[in-house]
Specification:
Elements lengths: L22 H7 L6 H22 L4 H18 L12 H16 L34 H27 L3 H12 L7 H8 L3 H24 L8 H13 L1
Helix pairs in contact: 1-2, 2-3, 2-5, 5-6, 5-8, 5-9, 6-8, 7-8
Amino acid sequence: MNDTDQGGLGVERSSHAFTTTHWSVVLTAAQDSPRSEDALATLCGVYWRPLYVYVRRRGYGEHDAQDLTQAFFARLLEKNYVAQADREKGRFRSFLLASMNHFLANEWDRSSTLKRGGGATFIPWEEFNDGTQTGVASQLSPDHLYERQWALTLLDQVFTCLREECAAAGKGELFEALRPYLSGEKGAASHAEAAKPLGMTAGAVQVAVHRLRRRYGELLCAEIAHTVSSPGEIDEELRHLFAALRA
């Protein structure tokens, strides 16, 4: 049986999936080339949420934290600090956190808050729901909150990539029907109940769910591999990710 039998989630393995945090993007961003600005903008798009919630937990108000995060990335672009990142010396997220701490301690002039990073716009604040002061997040230290938001952002990126893969393979409707099994939502229908509106058997749904979960795991491991210096660190980083979610 191939991946498309009985309506299964057969999707083409995307060779370009999850380049947003790949070290090749970091290296490109560090170069003086026409592609470097796009690469830096890509990095900003991936890491602004974890850094913003970190700044908030450090005690800054919502608007100050927005200004600081925006200004940090503007300075990252202006000074090309990414060129200092060394793949052999740790995770890129750790480099960014250390850079933010340096920025907060030495680089920030409060008189520049209204400049919003010199007028540049990288971050869609209007689309962001700031939940740093409620629920689990309200009990975490700045460092733990940064790690938790990094983990949530990573999983969200993987989920989005899988959804896009399925849609491109003509399996978008099936993905949406089966997504509760992927996210572990309470009250998910039984395989037999889910099968009826899909015109599938319960067995076919079970197989499709298995494939969906397997592909999600593949994409997650691929994304983790992009952010560590060697394949041997993947399992350790996965453990770190889930520990951050449990914190």
